[in-house]
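Late entry, evening session. Most of the bench is empty. Finally got around to the prediction I had been postponing all week. Sequence below, unchanged from the version circulated by S.P.
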Amino acid sequence: MLSWRFVLRWTCLGLFFRFLIMPFTLHTIDIFFVHYFPFTAIEQNRFDIYQYFQSKFPEYPYSYYPPLTFYITLIFQKLLQPALPTLASLMARFENLAFYHQGGSTVHFASLLQDPYLFRTLFLFKAHYLLFDAAIAWMLVCLADKPAHKAWAYRLWMVNPLVLHTSYGVGQIDLLVTFFLVLSFFMFERRYPKIGMAMLGAGGLVKLAPFYLAPGIAFSIGEKLRRKIILMISCLVPVAVLLFFSKDARVVLESWVVLAGAYWKINPSVMGISKLPLIFLLIGYGVVVFLAFSRKKKTMPLLSIFSLLLLLLWVTVSTRPRHLLWISPFLILELLRRPLIGAWLLTLLAAIWELHGAGITYRLGLLAPVDPTFFTSLPILDSFLSVAMDIRWVHRVC
């Protein structure tokens, strides 16, 4: 295993970057939207959160995240509320702009939410990510084969720009999804396939994407039809358990499963996927699963199945930079096991992330809580690239 000096050095470096970013960054409504409904549940003691959302904001174009996101955030917010004396005031201002006016950019939210405790609030809103972050780092070290690979896995995760930007900068919950994806893969590698499938189901209760992996994984590793069915049922166990303990299972089913978040409410196509990408996704999915049947011959290891299915989902459904975080742990392992392939994929995704995340609110504009006007007025990378090339063609290619 790694020496304590090595772990201490890289942990301190990783925490330095995280602590530097956490209190001073904000992206429009993201982090406050995540915490608003758990806050409402604590203040009003009502846990029929989806029914509350639909009744109070019927015209709002998004549904709240799946139930496990709500409960995880609720637990940590309950623990941290004593350190947030002005949270009610901040949430009232957030509600007014986000739900009733349904507009505003990062600069508007940062200006509206100016408060003596804003930096502390932003820091504590993101603090629970550190636990999931550390767990992923530990699992990557365990999954790496050689001592040198373990060291590099830890280094790469500690300074992973996707983690720093998506989780601690933007404040999105994708690190929770990543945790359950890596935990699922970890259980498969430790030969606990039923628990691995259950962890995919738990991840789907944070965001829907892990459910998409479940059929491909089950059909790839299940030797017989009965085994495949058992694995699929294992994936649904966390859903059944959570619905059983929910205060209003019908509302959860209607507002979460049926509406399926933003896609079903704002896009008439199938879960927000237009026809051509959907065809590409189905064909690619079928090819990966077909090739995985020969996994016993080591032509399609489980790591590649996870990586390829997640890449297909990202390319066809959402090329948002933050969703690359889901894939990054698997690409780190690919890089260590197959350096040429891993390096090529990481370079390609880094370029795409740079271009698709080029907006000012995803860059220095995240520092709007420090000075809303100054940091949202700075030039973006495209401004410099356009001097030497026609940046529109680069965006079309990527």
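Two things to note before I forget:
Residues 260-272 have pLDDT under 50 and may be disordered.
The radius of gyration is 21 Å.
Will write this up properly tomorrow.
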